[in-house]
Amino acid sequence: MKKNNKILVTGGVGYIGSHCLISLINNKYEPIVVDNLSNSSREVLKKIQLITKKKIKFYKFDLRNKKKLSSVFKKHKFDSVLHFAGLKSVKESNANPLLYFNNNVINSINLIETMRNFNVFNLIFSSSACVYNSDEALPWSEISKTGKTTNAYGTSKYIIERILMDISKADKRWKIGIARYFNPISNHHSGLIGESPNGIPENLVPYLIKVISGEYSFLNIYGDDYKTKDGTGVRDYIHVSDLAEAHLKLLKYLKKINSFEIFNFGSGKGYSVKEIIKSFYKNEKIKIPYKIKPRRNGDLPIYYTLNTKAKKVLKWGVKKNLNTMTKDICKFIKNSF
Q: Is residue 319's pLDDT more than 90?
């Protein structure tokens, strides 16, 4: 019997989804993409096809459109689903929580129900370190406490995780892998695709890219008086291509899961904002002007993961360090501006 290699990828034109498409294609899978292009572009698909030399089947619609979603399941017999689709702005989520619950949670419920209707029970859900309690001792592991979220984005991810946990208990056909990300940065080594959100970026690297390209005059650093190595905030940054490989490992492991399993994906160490800035000068001789601003409410001084479980169970680990991350980002800048 021929192996079913069709994978539905929701939000597949977004930053993480697009890099996962490359890994899937390079490993003989056939990804089918659904994306509403609310924070992405068809140009990304063209560039992925240029990188992989493969044409990708793409459907443009919102997952809240259950009729269109069902029609895609009717056309394709899927083995598994990688669910990346969702809004992800922390600032926007706090200003408009209902938008995030309506979009992220309702979209996910529609997807889950449609999967069940078509007897597809293998799912990887794109979650976040935002689900962890901020007062938990570091490093955060898969058994660290969750639920005391500080923003509606994190709450939406936590709610979806709980829904998936409960349905997997009720119906043992489900094989669900929860991928909790820390801070993915950088891009494919070709520099053809990268992180380029619409509007003013909230995350460090997309903002840095706009400073380096000349669109912004300087970087704002929010706080330099934290109890960290240089006073600036420390985060667990992971190369997005390493994260894409983690999804591939999890996809291969999925059918061994007993209903529901969680994995943290991060580098297992922290880099400060100033370390990121210095890496651009070290590797590319790029000086990044910055101004120190007051701390932002809700920002933690430091967090990072313990990725022992992913190493042991999935035989996965990061291969790319900060120097590689920086060099790849600069390739993307050269290709984009």
A: yes
Type of residue found at 330: C
Class of the domain covering 6-182+238-266: alpha beta
Question: Cα–Cα distance between 193 and 201 in angstroms, integer?
Answer: 17
Eight-class DSSP state of 140:
B
Which amino acid belongs to residue 80?
S
Among residues 172, 316, 312, which one has the least CA distance to residue 255? 172
Single pTM value for the model: 0.96
For residue 54, CA distances in Å to 29, 30, 327 come to: 11, 10, 26
pLDDT digits (tens, 9 = 90+) for 55-108: 999 999 999 999 999 999 999 999 999 999 999 999 899 999 999 999 999 999
Mean of the pLDDT values across residues 136-158? Answer: 96
Q: Are 325 and 201 in contact (CB under 8 A)?
A: no
Distance of alpha carbon 121 from alpha carbon 80, whole angstroms: 7
For the chain, the first-to-last Cα distance in angstroms comes to: 48
In a 13 Å sphere around the CA of 128, the CA atoms on its Cβ side amount to 26
pLDDT tops 50 at residue 1? no
Q: Do residues 149 and 158 make contact, with C-beta atoms less than 8 angstroms apart?
A: yes
Give CA–CA dist 189/213, Å, rounded. 19
The tokens for 6 are 């069709």
Query: 192-247, pLDDT tens digit by residue?
Result: 999 988 778 888 999 999 999 999 999 999 999 999 999 999 999 999 999 999 99
Catalytic residue among 132, 153, 237, 271: 153
In whole angstroms, give the CA distance from residue 40 to residue 14.
Answer: 6
d(CA 191, CA 182) in angstroms, rounded, equals: 22
Q: Who contacts 40 (Cβ-Cβ below 8 Å, separation ≥6)? A: 11, 13, 14, 15, 18
Q: Can you spell out the DSSP letters for 86-125?
A: S---HHHHHH-HHHHIIIIIHHHHHHHHHHHHTT--EEEE
79: Cβ contacts below 8 Å, ≥ 6 apart: 4, 5, 6, 7, 120, 122
User: Annotated catalytic, 153?
Assistant: yes
CB 316 within 8 A of CB 196: no
